[in-house]
Design goal:
- The protein has 2 helices and no strands.
- It is mostly helical.
- It has a domain of 31 residues.
- The longest helix has 32 residues.
Length: 76
Amino acid sequence: MAPMVAMIGLPELLIIFAIIVLLFGASRLPGLGKSVGQSIRGFKTGLSGADEEKPKELEAKPPDDATPPTSPPPTA
């Protein structure tokens, strides 16, 4: 048995697009597409950002063997 996705052709896609236009209206489709694109981009950034945060945290941490700077001796 073939998967359902393989059975979707051009006529079916046109019907789905027509239903979307009827539901949301032609004037709202660009905004809807933009928000979907931003959501996908944010999701991808979140996935890749989780891997990038760990090295940044390690770079910001000072090494353990570093001595703190000394203050000048008090003058009497």
